[in-house]
Every structure is written in C-alpha cells, then in structure tokens.
## 1
Amino acid sequence: MDPLLLLLLLHGLLLLPLAALLLYRHSPPFQFLCKVAFFNCWIVALATLLSPVAALRGRSVENMRLLRAALLPLKHLYGIRMRVRDSELLRLPGPFVIVCNHQASLDLMGMVEVIPERCVPIAKRELLYLGTVGWACWLSGIIFIDRCRRDAAIEVIARTASAMRQENLSVWVFPEGTRNPGKSMLPFKRGAFHLAVQAQVPIVPIVISPYWDFFSPEEKRFTSGTCTIRVLPRVETLGLSPKDVPKLTESVRQAMAEALAEMSMSDHRDQDMEQPLLGPGEDRGSPQGQGDTARSRK
Ligand SMILES: CCCCCCCC/C=C\CCCCCCCC(=O)SCCNC(=O)CCNC(=O)[C@H](O)C(C)(C)COP(=O)(O)OP(=O)(O)OC[C@H]1O[C@@H](n2cnc3c(N)ncnc32)[C@H](O)[C@@H]1OP(=O)(O)O
Ligand SMILES: CCCCCCCCCCCCCC(=O)OC[C@@H](O)COP(=O)(O)O
C-alpha cells in the first residue's frame, strides 16, 4: 500500500475518537444515544460478570444483593442524585407488596435505591430471553409473567402469594404493566392488588418523580439531575377479599397520582448537584428551563 495513503488512514483513525468526543460534548442527541447505549452495555456486562457468581448460590432472592450492587454505581456515572423521602415506611416486620410507577428502564436506578431485603420484582417474560441478563434475573429470583396469557399470569401470582408468606418474601410490581413516559399514570393492572389480598399483606406505594428535567427520549436529552423517590404510607389488606380489589386498586392509584402531581410541581434541580463521571452534564447556568416543570422553589 502507498505509505502516504497509510499515513492518511492512520491520521483518520486517530481523529475518529476526537471527533466522537467533540460530538459527545456538543450534540445532546448523540450524548443521549451514547448514554442509553452505555446503560444497556453496563447491564449486559455486569450480568455476564456476576451471573456465574450468582449461579454458585443457585436461584435465590439473596442474589438480589448482587443485582443491587451492580446497578447502584449507575447514578454516579450519570450524575443523578437520588433523594429518598420517608424510607422508614418500608421498615415493616413482615412481607409486603410494593407498587411503583414505571416511566423508563431508568427506574431500575430508583428501584435499587430503595428495594428492601428479600424483595423481588415481577417482570415481563421477555426479559428471560435477553441472554445473560435473563439468566441474572432468573438467578435473582425475579418472577416472570406472560402478559399475553392472563390465566398463566394469574396462576403465577397465586403461587407467589403463598411463597410470600412461606418465605417472608416481598414483591415489587409496576402496576401500570408497561413503561409510561407520559405525565400521568396509566390505569393500573390488578395483579399486584390480588397478590396482596391473597397473601393478606400490606401494600406500600412508591412514587418516582418525573425524569423530564434530565431525561427525555422524545427530545433525545439526557443530562444530570435529581430524582426524588417517595414512599407512601402502607395500605392494609387484612380481611379484604377479591371483590374489594377494584376499589383497593383505585384508592392506591389515587394516592400515587396525587403524590406524582405534587412531585411534578416542585423543582428537582439543586445547587449541590452531583457531577456526572460520564462527561458534561447539564448547563446549570442556562436560564431557559428544560422540560415544563414549574420552577418554584420550596
Ligand atoms: C446477579 C447480578 C445481575 C446484575 C445485572 C443486572 C440485570 C438487571 C436487569 C433488570 C432487572 C429487572 C427489572 C425488573 C423490572 C421489569 C419491569 C416489567 O417488566 S413491568 C411489566 C410486567 N409487570 C406487569 O405486567 C404488572 C403485573 N401485571 C398484572 O398485574 C396484570 O394484572 C396481569 C398480567 C395479571 C393481567 O393483566 P390484564 O391485562 O388481563 O389486566 P387486569 O385488568 O389487571 O386484569 C383483568 C382481569 O383479571 C383479574 N385479575 C388480574 N390478576 C388477577 C389475579 N392474580 N387473580 C385473580 N384475578 C385477577 C382482574 O381483576 C380483572 O378482572 P375484573 O375486571 O376485575 O373482573
Ligand atoms: C442480548 C443483549 C440484549 C441487550 C439488553 C439490554 C438489557 C437491558 C435490560 C433492562 C431491563 C429494563 C427493565 C424494564 O424497564 O423493562 C421494561 C418493562 O418493564 C416494560 O416493558 P414494555 O414497556 O411493555 O416494553
């Protein structure tokens, strides 16, 4: 090959990372893409690294600790400050069902921030087929349901209800049943509430504040920011029967919707925001507000 051409090619190769770096710093959509890709790569990498360790123990809720440890560093990498309100409401003597709003995959960061000991999420069956990620989830005792087959899902819930009492197991459910980036919550599926009534355990609602300040897939924006997680008072189900489930579902949803609306109003941006390790965050000096949350300071 012509040495001159080779030299040019080498220069080109050296310039490529530089160009990517420049693009990352100056193009929010490119930054969004990189950050989302990194999020998924992190999960695949950690699942691949830790699954063999988890496999030594076999399928067990104890592996949820590994899963937590794997996901906890993400908030530092992304410069997302987590504020947890009323976490003491999660300290209950027995098992319970947590219901939480579901905006995006980012919820995993909030989930590992507050998820108590001996608690497993319910997840869609599709996650099982994500290679080592599915394997890691299975090893951690995550409960899978097939959302397209209601009878099978109801059967899994019934088995989970007895396991909850026998094994002192709590369960985390996203009752919207799917990710919802919208400003209000979707109608709730009833599985979580049937589960709590069947097991006769309390329901603890958790609300994660909207991500608009720092994360918007539509606008391809992903900066640093603050996320608030609020634990609401538990709702008892002792003595309730299946016929009470619709009312129970509605009242819990109402309480969560009110908390969400309240949290959407308050300003989540803080002066002492954490600096992301993954490069530039948001322009803190910028006067024009991003997202459409009210900027009233408390
Ligand atoms: C080891 C180291 C590793 C390191 C690496 C880290 C890797 C980590 C990676 C990843 C971590 C994991 C992350 C997990 C997060 C995943 C999140 C998700 O996947 S969210 C999607 C799944 N969640 C749900 O779908 C909610 C639960 N679903 C339900 O509750 C539904 O109710 C369901 C599926 C059971 C049925 O859905 P329907 O669409 O038919 O809707 P309906 O309105 O609820 O029910 C219809 C009728 O059935 C009755 N029904 C529902 N459930 C019942 C039940 N259990 N018993 C009796 N009747 C029931 C209801 O009462 C209703 O009947 P009437 O209208 O009242 O007459
Ligand atoms: C073989 C490699 C594949 C790469 C996979 C990347 C791993 C990412 C795993 C992230 C788990 C996120 C959990 C989550 O948030 O699931 C979404 C469901 O709750 C709702 O699903 P949907 O909105 O109804 O599609």
## 2
Amino acid sequence: MDFDKLILGIDIGTSSVKISLLDSSTSKSIYAKSVPTKAKTSSSHQKGDEQDVFNILKAMQECLKSPGKIMEKVKAIGICGQMHGIVFWDEQFVQTFWDNEFTNETKKLVSNLYTWQDARTDLKFLTKLPKPRSHLKAYSGYGCNTIFWLKENQPEILSNFKHCGTIQDLIVSILCNQGKPVMSTHNAASWGYFDVIECSWNTDILIKANFPVYLLPLVVQPGKIFGTLYETIYHIPKGTVVGVALGDLQCSVIATLTSMTDAVINISTSAQVAFVTKIIEKQCDGVEYFPYYDNHFLAVAASLNGGNVLDCFVRSVLSWVSALGLNITEDELWNRLLHLPDEEHSTPLIVNPLIFGERHDPTTFGSLINVTNNNFTLSELFSGFCKGLINNLLKMMPREMLLKAGIQRIIGSGSVITRNHIIKKEIENCFNLPLSLQMPEDSAFGVALALLKNNPHLFS
Ligand SMILES: Nc1ncnc2c1ncn2[C@@H]1O[C@H](COP(=O)(O)OP(=O)(O)OP(=O)(O)O)[C@@H](O)[C@H]1O
Ligand SMILES: O=C(CO)[C@@H](O)[C@H](O)[C@H](O)[C@H](O)CO
C-alpha cells in the first residue's frame, strides 16, 4: 500500500520501548514494534529504583531501525512515556548525541533515570516537605520530591547537570538537538508542586524551601509542537515536526476512548482505571485528577501494582526452580502460567498482591488469606495474584463511582490484559460492565493520534 503522511508515535515505557506508525488519512496503525529496555540498574539507595538511560536509548534505536524506508513518509513524531520519573543531563549530551557512540565519557553527561517506582522519599522524608498548592498531592517517585531528596543527600547530582525532565522530555530534546527541555502539563503535573489550573509551578513555595527552581522546565499545553528533527535519522527526514512529550497514561486513554461513557483499564507495568471528566470531584483516597486535553481531566485510580507484581512472582518462581537445581526459561514459565488449568476449591486462596504498597498507603503490603491443605498450588497462587490486582483496582475506583460518572463500558488496554485470560475474566466479574479489548501498542499509537488531532493542518 502507498502511504502519504505517517505519524510516528514512541512510548518509553518502564519495561519496553514501543513505536507505532499511524497513517494520517485513515487514523489506523500500519506498523508496531516493541523492544524490552532491560534498563533496571543498581541504585545507591536501598529503596531506589533507577534505570540506565543508555539501555532505554538503545531499545529506542532498535525500534526506530526496524520499519526501514517507510519512515521517509513520517511527517511528525509524538513521544510519550513513563510519568513522574526524572533524569538530569548536560546540554553537551544532547548536542553530541548523534555524533557519538555510547561511551563512558558520554555516560558522565547524563544521570540514571529515577523512576516513578523510586521509593527513597519515604513517609518520614515526605512529612518534612512543604504542602503543594495543587489539587494533586506529591508522592514518592515524583520528580520534585526526588529533587528535594537529592538536594539533601546527593547534591552533586544537582550541581553536575544543568537540565532535567522526564525520560520522554530528554528524548524530545535529543531528537531536536535542543538541550533545554519544555514539558507538557501531563508530565509537569506528574512531578508534583504544579498547579494545573494556573499552568505554573509552585515557585513561591519551592523557593521558600530552598528548592533549585532554576532546574524546572518551561511548561506548555499538550499537543504543542516542541521543534523539528535535527537531522535525518532512520530515514525520517530532517525537519520533521516533534511534539512536546506527553504522559503514557493520557496517551493510552486517547488511543482507546471513543466516548465519554467509556472507562479505560490499562495494565502494563503498573495498573490504572481512568475516565475523562470536566469536573474535579472531592478527592477520595486513591483517585486523582490528572490533566488530559482541552481543559478536561482524567479521573484515575493509579495502582503501583500491575504487571510488575506478576513479574515479581515469575522471578520468585524462577529462583525457586533454580534453587532446586532445575531449569526453565522466563518465557517458558510465563507461557506455562498463562495456560495452567483453572482449579475450583471450596475455600479459594485469596491473594492481596500489594507488594509495592500504594501511593495513598505506602506502608501496607501484600498477604495471603485462606491457605488450606489443598489450595496452595501454583495455579491458585498465580490466578490469586491476577485476581487480586483487579480487586485492588475495584477498591480504588468502585463500580458505583463509574456508574455515577455515566460509564457504560470498560476498554481494556496494555499487554498484561490482552495476554492474560484470568485478568480479563476478573475485570468482567468485578466491574460487571461490558469489556472491550485493544491491541497492545496503545500509548505509542495514542501519542501519534494526539498529534494528529491537535495539529490537523500538518497533515491536510
Ligand atoms: N513473556 C511474557 N509473557 C507474558 N507477560 C509478560 C512477559 N514478560 C513480561 N510480561 C508482563 O508484561 C509487563 C510489562 O508490560 P509492557 O511491556 O506493556 O510494559 P511497559 O509498556 O514498559 O510498561 P508501562 O507502559 O507501564 O511503562 C510485565 O510487568 C509483566 O507482567
Ligand atoms: O505506568 C507508568 C509508567 O510505565 C506510569 O507512567 C503510570 O502511567 C503512572 O504511574 C500512573 O498511572 C499515573 O500516576
């Protein structure tokens, strides 16, 4: 088929980088690819969660290499990714990126990514911090709180680098060869200390607390163009427009939502239930209102426990298997777990799977209930973890809340739902609403679609 104008969407996830090529005339995805980043790296802090930026960039390059000559048709690039996290860099890193191989020298020009799962800012530390002036609270793993922690404990990180942003902001800067980042409200709100209504950082509060406000990027509305591609790469022509980076959550919703009466459940590394609304209701624990598009908000129950919990379960089983002197590959184990026969027990095993705590309750962790002499099996355990994740989402965003907002259908997205039949069935059982499923390239597709919707003139 001959395509005229394509839009490239890139999603920098926690576990993988995904790309999608969208045909602007049909709004359909014509190509998708996903590459695992394997970026987790050791952290100087026991509760830290850091990723190696080079591994992320290499995964992105592998994705970009794969479509080949068709990339000549790309007219615009949209980037989204994991929210809340922060990375620091030097202008030189961005300026020399396209000339260099990754070396130990260039490594010094960029920090690790401190991710949204970073828990170093524990409750004790957070209580010392000023209260943000925003309808959004600032939790552990949020960029501004990580800066507060670094200022007190590792000030050299702040003095070594001039700029910071989310990982997706860094990638936008690299593509346009502009060291200084510009952020969208999606990502600024995910850092904390940002007033969405005023579209401004809480600079006064932060200055009083001795926060290095000069590090905070300029913020613009989502959908704005950041700049243009610095040079022809992977057949994408120099000068192609690049949008300001967006949040992966908002992009997974834009990719899937067709009506205001739909809610989206997205489960990949984390898990969330969300719906679009014009009003911010009185906040209840576990539900937050993130900026969406056009003065709308996303009411979100964002759980820290999603595919990462199942991943952790798989790793535990792998280590037991290896301790027993046996051997099975990770992929084979996933495959077996996903195809274990269902079991029926008069007393079912109940798994509370909150092994990562929750933002609104960071010190309560997982547990097993009702272990009997016949239900402690691999099948029951795995399915218990899967079901527990959905029950937790239901607790955070009760069905009544969805019904009150006029929701009539749930759209499921994210690779963990599409690959896991136990999770699919439990969503239907718990939420008792029709469930429709989306293909796994959701956020990468969504960021391309957002660019098309916000800038139709670029493709007419
Ligand atoms: N071989 C496998 N088979 C089935 N599921 C797997 C397999 N490997 C990983 N997973 C699950 O997929 C999850 C990661 O999903 P995905 O690659 O969509 O994440 P991501 O897009 O990087 O995350 P996010 O969008 O939240 O940042 C893991 O946490 C794990 O639960
Ligand atoms: O899952 C994520 C990263 O891969 C996050 O960006 C979530 O989307 C985010 O943590 C959450 O859903 C909103 O707080």
